[in-house]
Design goal:
It contains four helices and ten strands, in the order βββββαβααββββα. The chain has about 160 residues and is an alpha+beta fold. A hairpin with a 2-residue loop joins strand 4 (about 30-35) and strand 5.
């Protein structure tokens, strides 16, 4: 699978706890379009992921598609929970209008409500119904290939 090129996104969600909203976000490359009618997308996360537990709790999440200029954001949200918590406070954009999950401004984003989850091997697939979308600048996408973040320009050279 190291030879399979994927796009790179940041998924975000939150939990409301003690009268406070606590956001979380994680870098993902396992985003799949499942259906256009209704509009459904899926993410795959490890069973023991705290991020997965938060999606299940809030039943809301967003996916921000990253551009090649967002490599530092992708790296920040590929870290452990404590480092991600710092990055949430300093790097993410505004809450989305449909779900309140944070959105990174980039080539595009989707906000979802949890439709269902399915255990698959050592991961759980969460399926979300897309409630809101947005499109930004059509910048070169950030991609993942051979265990590294790249851009189309670096692959072509």
């Amino acid at each position: 699978m190291r030879q399979f090129v994927t796009g790179v996104c940041v998924a975000s969600t939150y939990v409301d706890q003690d009268s406070e909203r606590r956001h979380d976000a994680v870098t993902v490359n396992s985003v799949t379009s499942l259906s256009l009618d209704p509009p459904l997308i899926a993410l795959c996360l490890r069973h023991e992921s705290r991020f997965l537990a938060r999606i299940r709790s809030s039943a809301r999440w967003a996916v921000s598609i990253l551009s090649a200029d967002h490599e530092s954001i992708a790296e920040a949200f590929a870290q452990d929970q404590d480092k991600r918590a710092w990055a949430v406070k300093t790097m993410l954009g505004e809450p989305g209008p449909a779900t309140g999950a944070l959105i990174v401004k980039g080539p595009g984003w989707m906000e979802c409500e949890l439709d269902r989850s399915i255990a698959v091997g050592d991961h759980t697939m969460v399926i979300g119904e897309v409630r809101s979308t947005g499109v930004g600048d059509a910048d070169s996408p950030l991609i993942f290939l051979e265990g590294r973040f790249r851009s189309l320009e670096t692959v072509q050279s």
